[in-house]
Amino acid sequence: MPSPDIRIGARGSPLALAQAEQARQRLGAVPGEPTPVALVPIRTTGDRIGDRSLAEAGGKGLFTKEIDEALIAGEIDAAVHSAKDMPTDLPEGIVIAACLKRADVRDAFVSPVAAQLADLPKGATVGTSSPRRRALTLRARPDLVIVNLRGNVGTRLDKLADGQVQAAILAYAGLIRLGLADRATSLMEPDQWPPAAGQGAIAIAARADDRRTIERLMAIDDRDTSIGLATERAFLAALGGSCRTPIGGLATVVGSRIAFHGIIVTPDGRSSHEVRRAGAVEDAEAIGTEAGAELRRRGGPDFFAAA
Q1: How far is it, in rounded angstroms, from Cα 171 to Cα 156?
Q2: 24 and 30 in contact (C-beta within 8 Å)?
Q3: Per-residue pLDDT at 1
Q4: Catalytic option among 77, 85, 104, 222
Q5: pTM (two decimals)
Q6: Above 60 in pLDDT, residue 2?
Q7: 3-state DSSP call for residue 14?
Q8: Beta-sheet pairing, 186-188 with 107-110
């Protein structure tokens, strides 16, 4: 068996490996000489933390740090990430080389006791480890009790089934990729419930100086997803946003045009600001930057300090 042409690193969770397998299959389907691809599971700091929220532990980079280190060291040639897990500032020498076609961006409401969030009984417990989902839940239902729900998708669904919470909110894309789409009780529509920046997108990173790998990855890049992700990441950068802050942002690309919707919410859900922008795809990153700057101005320096 020939040695792999490209070694792809990813977290060892079932969802991360399913995403990496998508990338492997896409690379293998590129016309021309077949590209042998190996998957390299890597355990990250985020995978080892189960007793507290990621925000408390340090933020988004917890799921990418060890993979980035392996990439820089040359132990792998590419890294497959859930785009929403990637820090706004990538480590020096690493670039996003490609994105796979984006999956459904919506959050899924999962509950054995209610058809949707509005139907939960007063004081019901809702599980999530996301500051954005927590804030949006309290914005809609301040009477609910939010419980930190960590672990991979299967673990969270097990905790829900065991009655540790009465509902959970998860990324629908993750359920789809694991063959668990039918577990969603209902879906949160982005217009009222904006997803996390990058949600549903699979990003593939490479070393900036590895032109050979970058060219191969560019062959499987989905243009609209990459443009949308660049817009959302520019929005986050302008806000200084991280895993700690309740921020939602979604860019939708249709042909040569792009529309963006962003939101910031105080952690208690009591205050929020939204922004909408549209323009040509050539101005995508500028649109994201301007949207972030506007919300930063409207929120003021103490916005995310609200309790």
Answers
A1: 12
A2: no
A3: 45
A4: 85
A5: 0.90
A6: no
A7: helix
A8: antiparallel
